[in-house]
Amino acid sequence: MFSEKQRPPSLTRRGGFLVLFVSAAWLVFWYPFTDINVIQQQQHEHPLLNKTQHDSEVNESPSAAATCDKNMSVYVYPLPAKFNLGLLRHCHNLNVHTDMCPHVANSGLGQPISSGGWFATNQFTTEMIFHARVENHPCRTWDPALASLFYVPYYGGFHVSNKFRERNLTARDELDVSLVDFIQAQPWWNKHNGKDHFVALGRVVRDFIRKPNDRDYGAGRLLNLPAVKNMSVLIIERHPWQGKNQYGIPYPSYFHPSTSQEMAWWQNKMRKVRRPYLFSFIGAPRRKAAIRNEFIRQCGESTRCKLLNCRTPDGHSKCGEPSEVLKVMTESRFCLQAPGDSFTRRSTFDSVLAGCIPVFFSPHSAYTQYGWYLPGERSSYSVFIDQKSKASERIEEELMKISSKKVKMMREKLLGLIPSLTYAHPNATNSGIGDAVDVALVSLAKQVNKIIN
């Protein structure tokens, strides 16, 4: 971090106001909803997430954190509250299907479910978590004159999901347009015409690319605005063909460690866990993704498969319970990752966390999405079965062909990916983890340097 002497005088004078504002916002919007008695009860109920006497010795995580030098520093725009924290005042309405108020607690990590960095994190809170991490990041600068990257902490995903049912398109797009007007009026925009600016979005790309002739399903048009096309867009699912300025970042999973020791402990636990099932599938049927129905059929007919169906007759699915999801995945050698409403799914990152080798059926579920994060050699950590091939009709048979030696090598590679695909706790400054935000900032700095030069 930078000393007061290094901060511009104008920023220093505003420091007191900013501290008061951020503190008030934290208390009003981010304070946890769960009391200590509930947390203690959850710890008792979820032994998988807690250390035991047998887990005392662990190896350090091999992942290294980002190093900050003169070529990489991030300035965080102090946006008016209406663009981020102000949206949380309407947390009950941020998602048409879910009350997001419990999920925006703890800087978007959600409700704590155990000690050691475990939270019931919602898949659409990435922009909050990213914001909180950069606010506390060692590469942050308070002086825009020193910045190589300019972060615009706009909660665009929360905004668009809050406006899904807004039929007045002008009203739906008003905040997006207002953001662009605000940013373009800043002196630092003109330095490179916004090419060193970026946003991080927590919903998939189709929610931001509505065009005049598109069928309206509630999307906004943030990514179609000319100014935003000049910026870099970090997003949980990019457009595989037209996303030239879009870069895929991980969905958040449930683990947000504060230290490299917590990370190494979990990696070691997943290395030793017993996996009695060959494969598993966690998901619900989809009318537009018939392959899911095929997975459910094949898994239900196999004694080597563990099925967690997210659509039950009584409506009480366990798919929203982190411990149940991780239990299925940690007991499985392979986890089927089917496209659903879009190409990607949070389940991919849950399976990596659980050391369960992902099986993809579309290259756009991961390979064309997360180039900053995944090895170029796909077969080193995953299995690909074309959903249009005959092999997709005999998944068990295909997976049985992979030797136990190969499985062990793939899992070891997968475990090594966990740190860079995980969002560390926002307070984990200089933790040595080298998390998803570290990877994004380092990779983006290189990309922006290429674009500008």
Automatic annotation (TrEMBL):
Similarity comment: family membership: Belongs to the glycosyltransferase 47 family.
Protein's UniProt name: Probable xyloglucan galactosyltransferase GT17
Pfam families given in the database record: Exostosin_GT47 (PF03016)
Keywords assigned by UniProt, alphabetized: Glycosyltransferase, Golgi apparatus, Membrane, Signal-anchor, Transferase, Transmembrane, Transmembrane helix
Gene expressing this chain: LOC110774241
TM segment ranges: 15-33
Membrane protein topology class: Single-pass type II membrane protein
Originating organism: Prunus avium (Cherry)
GO molecular function: glycosyltransferase activity
Organism superkingdom: Eukaryota
CC per GO annotation: Golgi membrane
Compartments where found: Golgi apparatus membrane
Domain (Exostosin GT47): residue spans on this chain: 70-389
